[in-house]
Amino acid sequence: MTIEVNGRTVEWKNNETVTRLLKRIGYVFPLVFVKINDSVIPRKDFLHVTIPDKAVIKVIHMISGG
Amino acid sequence: MNIQEKNRIRKKVQGACVGIAGIGGLGSNAAVALARAGVGHLVLVDFDVVEEDNLDRQYYFHDQIGKLKSDALTETLHRINPSLDCITHQVKLERGSMEIPFKDVDVVLEGLDNAETKATFIEEILLKLPGKPLVAASGVAGYGKPDRISTLQMGNFYLCYDEKAKSSEEDVLIASHVALMANWEADLALRIILGEHHDH
Question: Which domains does chain A have, with CATH numbers?
């Protein structure tokens, strides 16, 4: 019962939303977008999309500059 | 490389269209690299004018201060390749309609500045133009650590990424580093145009 977040193994929790997962693992960047098993999750859905067991998650943050 | 293969590549690159969102440090340098590489069609989207403090990293010249960036860059690109087809949109990309100028391009290249705008733009392109190849950059500020840059690929989305970089509010934007990332983006765009399987 684990998931993978940016290559790191994290315990899976039933019914955990993206927002809660990010908070639990200390990803506090204000600007992230997330892919769960290759689907892009828009930020507006972070509050209600839950993480499935064994999910492979990529959390990417955007840094200002260009 | 044999002449046939060279011609095949030249033709493919010449027929390609890259859309660039924001032609500041990333976008202007990427546009020059793509034009020199022989890309035949560019769509440039930016509403800004050239200012003196852009000259430390953006591909503009002192005598272009005050001009629209899209006009100034088109002028420069035409000095490289007079037959380059350059379409410009002087619009501010706003949430909800950001994908519109990029509907018909082969590759979208993100050259925006603000982190929030970058995230919103990427989200809109991925959701509204599914399957459209997108190249973006994150972590452009700073200098001296080019080996920290890597490419993150997820399907058709390629991110030139330095996850340890500070934001441009906390660190400097330096010509060498900005151009490095811009050229990295341009190189990825060419890889997409020529196909992953291209033997080199």
Answer: 2-61 (3.10.20.30)
pLDDT tens digits, one per residue of B148-170: 999 988 889 999 999 889 989 88
Closest residue to B123, CB basis, from A43, A58, A63: A43
Q: How far apart are CA B138 and CA A63, in angstroms?
A: 5
pLDDT per residue as tens digits for the range B99-153 = 999 999 999 999 999 998 998 999 899 889 999 999 999 999 999 999 999 998 8
User: Does the beta carbon of B71 lie under 8 angstroms from any beta carbon of chain A?
Assistant: no
Q: Tell me, what CATH number does B40's domain have?
A: 3.40.50.720
Residue A31 has pLDDT above 80, yes or no: no
Residue B110's domain comprises: 3-194
Is the minimum CB–CB distance between B164 and chain A shorter than 8 Å? Answer: no
Structure-token match 């002028």, residue found = B75
